[in-house]
Amino acid sequence: MSSLSVSDLTKLQTVKYVNLGSFAILAFDYCITFSEEVQWTWFKPWDVTRVIFIISRYLPFAGAGMTAYGDNQCTSILEGNIIHLIGIVAAEALLVIRTWAFWQRSKRLMIGLLVYSVLTITAAIAADLSPTMLIPGEEPPKGTYYFQSTRNSAVVYIFLAMFESLLLVLTVYKRVHDYRDFQGGIVQTLYYDGMIYMLCILTITIANVIIGVALASAYSNMFDTYVTSRTLAAS
Question: Which terminal residue of the chain, N or C, has fewer Cβ atoms less than 10 Å from its own Cβ?
Answer without folding.
Answer: N
